[in-house]
Amino acid sequence: MDYVTFGTTGRRVSRLGLGCMSMSGCYGAQDDAECIRTLHRAFERGVNLVDTSHSYGEGHNQELIGRAIKGRRHAVVIHSKSGSPRSKPGDGLNRGGGDEAHLRKNCEESLQRLGTDHLDVFCLSRIDRNVPIEDSVGAMAKLVQEGKTGNIALSEASPESIRRAWTVHPVVSLQIEYSLFSRDPEQHGNLGAVRERGMSLMAYSPLSKGLLAGLVRTVDDVPAGDRRRELPRFQPENMMHNARLLVQLEAMAAEKDVSLAALTLAWLLHQGREVIPIPSSKSRDHLEHNLRALDVSLSTEDLARIEAVCPIDAAAGTRYPPEQMSRVNV
Questions:
Q1: Distance CA 8, CA 19 (A)
Q2: How far is CA 168 from the centre of its chain?
Q3: How many other CB atoms sit within 10 Å of the CB of residue 178?
Q4: Which residue of the set 3, 27, 56, 204 is catalytic?
Q5: What pLDDT, in 10s, does the model give residues 84-136?
Q6: What share of the chain in percent tops pLDDT 70?
Q7: Mean pLDDT of 20-29
Q8: pTM for the full predicted model
Q9: Is residue 171 within 8 Å of residue 201, measured between CB atoms?
């Protein structure tokens, strides 16, 4: 396993992390026992960075990880997001969540679920437009002072919010969607802001929610009730356009005798050492496919060919519906 320094912490983390959202029923059925086996396999393979959230599975995700890290907590870097309040039961749209009471409550509940006395990184899930970022970061800084988290981070924050946050307390990482189909960090300056301050960038959905793994070709491939059916990128016309891009990328992957997932993750790894993809896996098989990206070498010519197929804005459809898009890059 290749390791990089995580932001300004001095802590070494695996070049690929493990996103755990899919282990709590977000994208179809999952099996707790297999998820724990997947976590253990990841640790055996050298993966030591796991990403979770207070909101995943209404606590199920953190409890699951807590079971998996018993006896090995010292070897695992836990990055946990704060989660955002829901406007009403069953509402999938998270809003707010930047006030001190919410952040403290969710941090302390996360510690209980995970069975640990501290988080390595506590991350603000979304910037709250109703609370100055300085106040949110100040509240999180108190949790650092109390030893409840070692560091703080932001998710889906704009370059301006990152810079304002740093006037209050160091921020070790930015978590943001980043993939061949989602190049926002390049377009909007997030990647530049991260580099200015020596932060890490945790690239979530690096396989575009299964598209860049070749797992989804048409809407019919998405299980009924799966939240992806609500996303613009997964609507029929957009899927047809995006599938044509996948065919070209798969041809390049075949030339290198690797999977589409390995090729697209390798592309991200070649964007800079501060970029740490956190693909989600709920099975050991998917985990192993993703880890093969670490062995894929891409030449300047390879990267140019990939860019020719997937330049910025090549994919059809935004990553979220309009109301949810209003909560990213804030």
A1: 21
A2: 25
A3: 25
A4: 56
A5: 776 655 444 546 789 999 999 999 999 999 999 999 999 999 999 889 999 99
A6: 95
A7: 78
A8: 0.91
A9: no
Q: Nearest 5°: phi and psi at 124?
A: -70, 120
Q: Collect all residues with Cβ–Cβ distance below 8 Å to 181 and sequence separation of at least 6.
A: 208, 211, 212, 233, 242, 310, 314, 315, 319
Is 3-211+268-298 assigned to CATH 2.60.40.3930?
Answer: no
Q: What are the structure tokens assigned to 65, written together? A: 């990880």
- 3-state secondary structure string, 165-230? HHCCCCCCEEEEECECCECHHHHCCHHHHHHHCCCEEEEECCCHHHHHHCCCCCHHHCCCCCHHHH
The answer to whether 56 is a known catalytic residue is: yes
| Degrees, nearest 5: CA angle 138-8-263 | 115
Give me the count of residues in the chain.
330
Please, what's the b/e burial string for 132-161 (b: 16 or more CB within 10 A of its CB; e: otherwise)? Answer: ebeebbebbbebbeeebbbbbbbbbbbbeb
- pLDDT bin (cut points 50, 70, 90) of residue 218 is confident
From first CA to last CA, the distance across the chain in angstroms is: 34
Average pLDDT rounded to a whole number, residues 36-41? 96
Are 162 and 172 spatial neighbours (Cβ–Cβ below 8 Å)? Answer: no
